[in-house]
Amino acid sequence: MKSNENPDLKIAQSITPQPINEIGKKLGLTNGEIEQYGKYKAKIPLSYIDEKKVAKNKMVLVSAITPTPAGEGKTTVSVGLVDGLNKIGKKAIAVLREPSLGPVFGIKGGATGGGYSQLIPMEDINLHFNGDFAAIEKANNLLSALINNNIYSRSRNLGIDPRTVKWRWAMDMNDRSLRHIVTGLGGKQGGFLQESGFNITAASEIMAILCLAKDFSDLKERMGNIYVGDTFSGDAVFAKDLKAHGAMAALLKDAIKPNLVQTLEGNPAIIHGGPFANIAQGTNSIIGTKIGLSLAEYTVTEAGFGADLGAEKFFNIKCRAGGLSPSAVVLVATVRALKYHGGVAKTELKSPNVKAVKDGLVNLEKHIENIQSFGVPVVVAINKFVSDTSDELKTILDRCEELNVPVDYSDGWANGGEGMKDLASKVVDAAESCTSTFKPTYELNMSLKEKIEAISEQIYGANKITYSPSADSILKRAKDLGFENFPICMAKTQNSFSDDASSYGRPTNFTINVREVEIAAGAGFIIPITGKMLRMPGLPAVPAAENIDIDGEGNISGLF
User: Fold this and answer.
1) What pLDDT shows up at residue 134?
2) pTM exceeding the 0.85 threshold for the entire prediction
3) Are 328 and 311 in contact (CB under 8 A)?
4) Most buried among 22, 92, 329, 511, by the most CB within 10 A?
5) Beta 198-200 vs 169-171: how paired, if at all?
């Protein structure tokens, strides 16, 4: 299909957005209270956080079963659910993540929903979007430059041992050739030879910090707490020892403010932060979520990839840090993903196959169990595709009814908010039935290995966990530095409950292999890296970038 024939693009181009000040008025904001970035975008000041309203209003988390490579439409469901909630008389807002250019130019293309459940202006959201990712990159790379400069300096160096520096450069692009590099070439004037590399910006600790910070002061303090490495005598070195944190935080003075846009139906949406869930915490900012909860009765937010990644981290990391607790979780399932987990090849997912759907239901069942373990009501949303058959859809409905789990169709792609009203009503019923806060997977006073093992066994279903000598060493170092009370942010493939991307469905009797560990002291968590997981993805054989273009009038195509 040519980009100019894409139905999502045609729909988006057929809608005239409302001026952003009109969207602000729906939230009770006047013209002077938002910082406009052109006609259809704005930033919201942090002063709009109202903790009393945060505690009173309801948050709905949208997660999913283990996805196919193309994703199962969490953003489409989230946007449609906001439109549906507004259709049934609830004041609702979406609070979602910003797209990374890695997937935009890589395998997925744009990330603003689809059909009649989209965010606009989609071109701006997908490309640069008010400069937030660029600011995060700059802050990350400023610290890299200051570390190298300190090592090079004869008069002011801290005695940093370059071999212990694990801080990496960041770039919001997929480029496998930058995973492992050597810096400092060029003789005496080029610094010291050193092994280094790049993380994609979504995996940078700066991104994690931005999304966990409470305000400007907390942002700067967290920047200062970033663990850089050790001196030759074995003392820990932090960013504040390099006097880096003030300038780093200054680079984020605008990026810390959430961005206001709208759905195709003119309902408000906040887009802020963009950590991946397979290599970072996978959820938007605490600030953005709290502003949403301060301005609307219902805040619909999402967590990346499957619930074993995004939702687990949402509960155990974000909710802990922000004092938050969702009133309901929407678990997105699709016929095609269930067939995928039932053993059907990617090329055959559009062909009817009720048996494969039944076989794949074990994946949905495990995700339902995981959400229920947090003590929060769950509603299954069947995101409909035109290739789905009535028998395949009924198979999912019947199983959810057997499990006594509320379920309904998500038909926002084809029908916008009107197609989401029934699901929205069930979500409201679930949210209003929630009377307690969530139950975490582990307690913070447990050892780091006990926490890793709790996630691996309870959420993934593993029966064994192994650690490389390097991982053991860094876990010991983290304990020695006083970080054993940190939560855990697992880096694991999104394609399976296990760390083997080819193991579909609900694998059993498997081992989680922790091959590496990173200390994210600024973010306040420990990152075990499992299996073959990488923090700098590569591009596919045919990158989505090849289909993105701009014409002589400045119109962009191919972003879907």
Assistant:
1) 96
2) yes
3) no
4) 329
5) parallel
